[in-house]
Amino acid sequence: MSSTAPLFAVYGATGHTGRLVAAELLSRGQAVLLAGRNADALRALAAELGSPDLVRTQTAPLDDPAALRRLAEAADVVIHCAGPFTTTGEPVATAAAEAGTHYIDHAIEPHPVKNLFDTLQATAGRTGAVMIPQMSFYGGLGDLLAAAVAEGMPDADRVTVGYSVTGWRMTKGARNTAELLIGEIDRLTFTEGAHHVGPVEIRNAVFPFPPPVGPRSVIAPFPSGEIVTIPRHIPARTVEAQLTSSTFEEEQIFSSEDATPEERARTDFMVAVQVVGASGGGRNGHLRGHDIWSVGALASVVAATLLTSGNGPSKTGVMSAAEAFPAADFLRRLESLGAFTLHLPG
């Protein structure tokens, strides 16, 4: 790890999210280590980004633990952008935890997120690493928004995170992740105060998005990692994520591997949270904006820079976004940077 200016390793740097993360870091004058499996592609990206004083590259294949360990040891924080995390998450995260290097990823899949908590908590706590999975659009924003909405609410019983997304153009990695999740038999859910693994009947429901979106048909449950992280800081008995059914009905979503960055930016979204109390009543909050990819990249960069500037959590180990940072403050910081407009109760 660096003893002077912090060094940010971006794993999967040549993908769409990795490029956005690297560009955001460079716009802040941060030193970036572009990492991944293809040396030629990494060098080409470094040349494209310019800033030779701030950018260097390092090759680290997923099946080379020694190379991944060298990468982690060279950096102050690893931002992992290369999905599907079902296959890529464990080797990169393990290297970071063992090296005592802070770690942030863009995972969405519930099983890999839970695996980090189950397998790396003790290691990260011992080595001094802070590890925050799914600090991205899906997962991270829902976790933070749920914490901000439920703050001070003594009897939160059910938390539902609703995603309304239009214009989503999947990358190859996102499509591979979606195919894995769609075909998954043993799904992870959180009901009656506990996690369960097994077949789940996908149902149609209606989520009460506020205007201008309004109530929409949704896929329920949508397999996102909030079901792992939200119960860590909200004592609810049921946590579920839902996604507008129309998102997967749009023609471009699965046929956009070659979309331009400008085309990928043309997404509109609303993330809304409903927290229902055990005795009735509850609270709602939402955020609304454009370009899910840039918002996710920005969230991970803000988190990473807070960690390296000494403004992270007082403890170490694996934690959710809302465990690592005060949720409402973090969301307002993103709002001030133009990520979205935020509406919290009260």
Task: Describe this protein's structure.
With 346 residues, this protein is of the alpha/beta class. The chain has helices at residues 16-27, 39-49, 65-74, 85-99, 110-127, 137-150, 172-182, 226-229, 261-264, 292-308, 321-324, 327-336; strands at residues 7-11, 31-36, 55-59, 77-80, 102-105, 130-132, 156-166, 187-191, 194-198, 203-207, 216-220, 238-244, 268-277, 282-290, 317-318, 341-343. The chain is built from twelve helices and 16 strands. Strand 4 (77-80), helix 4 (85-99) and strand 5 (102-105) form a beta-alpha-beta unit. It is globular and about 55 Å long.
Secondary-structure blueprint:
Blueprint (H helix, E strand, L loop, with lengths): L6 E5 L4 H12 L3 E6 L2 H11 L5 E5 L5 H10 L2 E4 L4 H15 L2 E4 L4 H18 L2 E3 L4 H14 L5 E11 L5 H11 L4 E5 L2 E5 L4 E5 L8 E5 L5 H4 L8 E7 L16 H4 L3 E10 L4 E9 L1 H17 L8 E2 L2 H4 L2 H10 L4 E3 L3
Helix content: 25-40%
Strand content: 25-35%
Strand arrangement within the widest β-sheet reads 3-2-1-4-5-6-15
Rg from Cα:
19 Å
Mean pLDDT equals 96
Characteristic terms for this protein:
seven-stranded parallel beta sheet, 16 strands, 346 residues, seven-stranded mixed beta sheet, alpha/beta
Question: Nutshell version of this structure?
Answer:
The protein is an alpha/beta fold and 346 residues long. It has twelve helices and 16 strands. A seven-stranded parallel β-sheet has the order 3-2-1-4-5-6-15, sandwiched between helices.
